[in-house]
Amino acid sequence: MRPTQLLLRIFLVAALATAGASLASAQAPQPQVEKQPQATEQASVADGPIEQAAKALEKAKQDLVALEDGVRQKGDDDDALVALAGKTDELGRSVLNISVGLRPRLDQIKNRLGELGDPPKEGQPAEAEIVTTERNALTAERAQINAVTGDAETLSASISKLGNVIAETRRQLFAATLLRRTDVSVSVIDDAARAFVQEGSEFVQALGSWLGFVLKFKAFAFFAAIFMSLVTALVLLSGGYRIFGRYLQRKETDEQPSYINRLSIAFWSTLIRTFALTTLLVTSYFFLNSFNVLRPDIAPIIGALFGAIGLIYFVRRFTNAVFAPKEPQWRLVKLSNRGASSIGACLLAMAIVNALDYLFGSISEAMGSPLVLTVVKSLIAALIIGFILIAASFGRPMLARNGDPDAPGRHWPRGMAIILRVLGAGLIITALTGYVGLARFVATQLIITGAIIVTTYIGLLSGKAISRSETFGETSLGRFLQKRFKLGPVAIDQAGLLVGMCISAVALIVGIPLVLLLWGFHIQDLELIAYRLLTEVRLGGISISLVGIMTGVLLFAGGYLLTRWIQRWLDSNVMARSHVDLGVRNSVKTGIGYLGVGLAAIVGVSAAGIDLSNLALVASALSVGIGFGLQNIVSNFVSGLILLVERPFKVGDHVVSGTAEGIVKRISVRATEIETFRKQSIIVPNSELINASVGNWTHRNKMGRSEIPVSVSYDSDPQKVMDILLELVNAVPVVLRNPEPHVEFLRFGPYSLDFELRFMLADMGDGLKVRNDLRIAILKRFREEGVQIPLPQSDVVFHRQPDQVGGATPASKAPAKIEDVSETSEMDDEAGTVRRLRGKSADGNLKG
């Protein structure tokens, strides 16, 4: 791998890796969308779909042969192998599309042959000639499709095999590059010194000639490219400061910042500022190259220079964010001030050595210098980094036990010091023994990969800290959201969980591609991985498309929101203005809701690429379990649909069931909510309302009859009582006059004359108040007219028992036996005197 390309990929991936997935997903469906109609049109004009598929397979075979030749010819060029791998993957998808395109026609043929049936056997009546002809034609066409499909499967296997060969070749090439050994001797160093002098003079001459040419003929394009790059970077940087400004700068007045603030500022300041500089460098290179300012020999050097600047800046931002040499209260690790400064300086020095190594290597490659010069440069860089690691292991960076950052620090933990010395000595020994490429690779990973991993880990810690319960509300962003949208504690806590997940996702999306690029992957590899991850995740024989699933979820959400909008619009504009009954409005809203959600679910599942026909087998396998385990749920669901369609009662009706009496508040597919007059909500399963008797006081309308029973004494005039009751009820405005109120003389009671006042009301909801007012009026009028309301009467008989000798027992000591009798006359008995007692049966008080 050339150093220039590696450095550019390291610092451009923040923009390219994110765009790679979207680019792959945007480009991949185009052949299906654009070429399919073209193929169909050609097939309808010239050949059939089978002939078109056969021709496409022949072309694919030729392309496969060309790719195999390319792999054999360019097996030592990793960049060429990456390009061939991309073409191989694209060829495999096109062959798969050929096979998939023939499946609908094959299914049609199978279904038609099933309808025609088998040909008649010997001794059976002959079938019609047209049937035989159609069967033979369909059988022949099926054989052709099977043959083409078989060729496609064979070709797909060959393409997969070629992809595996390319991957294995790249692995071997990577290992050979790392383990390539070069003799290190005095003569080699002497040759490198002479080559370095010659390279320096050639580079100065080439740079001077290029600058003279640019300033004389390309000055406007050069300054325009620089200006546009600066504008782009400033726009991104200013936007980042406007959105994340409070997370980019540390407050000097904050003496004890919280852990979450330290994490957030460390992560976002490193990420956003590095991204802004990377954007400036990328756009500068892009505009300079687009305006033809860069010559072919200068372009890789400028690219390596931009990469070196980006690398040094990233490590500088990383060390400042994590170690905070001058601000110990913002430090993320327990180091002393001197230790933080020394470790940051060591990391920055190693980054500078690595960046200069790649820059000088790019210059040597552009100038055509001997390979020995690049080897010696990398050797020197590896030795310097090794000595820096060994020197750092003897430092005392750890925070003192008393916690004072200004105090002299403590030594490294013993294990850490040993690791640093082993790494430093290993780099030195590896480089001196001739494995310069391996030493150079390890040195790069120690610095850049370590910094990226730690930054990603800080991002994950930040997301985890913000996601903690009751933490996001204490941040400035949480307080802003609470004030702006008036969110409660639960809502702001859920928002914190979402924000934490987004921060973790950003850290992973940025960190993982960078690490993969450092370990030998190319941009094309990441694009291919992203495309397969988003479109072709395979679990056994099932292919899952994450893009399809996301599209299905978005379509379902859109259909759900559209359904809710239609419900609100119909309810508030159409039915409300038409004065439609509340129950009808509820049924229409519920029905539209179920229909819309069902259609949205079907559209979402279809868009996700899930074949509903594949679910038939699963549904049949689960039908028995559903029948037994979910029969009550299914019964309630069907009963709910019946209630919504037949509407035996609706929302607002006054119903009486075996378990509750009250007003219907809500009818859903599983249960109905009934609110009692004591404001208790009772959830009744729909199946009980369907299978049991339910009384509905307001089924047809709200009109109903109300009764008031009245009892008077036997001394009262019945006609006068009836006249009083009718007079009082006719004075009530809400009582209907048709049918008119009337009084029924019901019976001669045991101690009263019983009447019942009956009248009709337009709304049974007014019955309780009307009856209450009428009872008060009746009581007042009866008192004025002298009509008595009798009390319940009962006769109690006391039997006095004689003593055993025959004499009478004193009254105070005689046991008494109480007996109720229905007669009201006085009686004499041998046991004693019977007194008739009157009393109130309601409270049990007796009256003599």
Task: Explain the overall architecture.
α9 packs across α14. The protein is elongated, with a radius of gyration of 46 Å. It is built from 24 helices and 16 strands. Helix content is 65%, strand content 9%. The model is unreliable at 1-46, 805-809 and 816-848 (pLDDT under 50). The strands form six sheets. The protein has a five-stranded antiparallel β-sheet with strand order 6-5-4-3-7. It is α+β, with helices and mostly antiparallel strands. It has six domains: 50-119 and 129-179; 186-434, no CATH class; 435-535, no CATH class; 544-610; 612-700, SH3 type barrels (Roll); 704-785, Alpha-Beta Plaits. The chain has helices at 3-27, 30-45, 49-73, 78-101, 103-116, 129-178, 186-217, 219-244, 259-290, 299-323, 337-367, 371-393, 414-432, 436-467, 476-485, 489-518, 523-535, 546-575, 582-607, 615-629, 631-646, 686-691, 718-730, 767-785, and strands at 537-539, 542-544, 654-656, 661-667, 671-675, 681-685, 695-696, 704-712, 742-748, 753-761, 795-800, 816-821, 828-829, 832-833, 838-839, 846-847. The relative contact order is 0.05.
Task: Describe this protein with a few key phrases.
single chain, 848 residues, alpha+beta, 6 domains, five-stranded antiparallel sheet, three-stranded antiparallel sheet, 24 helices, 16 strands, 65% helix, elongated
- State the share of residues found in helices, binned by percent: 55-70%
| Distinct helical segment count | 24
Could you report the average pLDDT, rounded to the nearest whole number?
78
Main β sheet profile: 5 strands, antiparallel
Strand order of the largest sheet: 6-5-4-3-7
Strand coverage percent: 5-15%
Poorly predicted runs are 1-46, 805-809, 816-848
Q: What is the 3D shape? A: elongated
- Write down the Rg: 46 Å
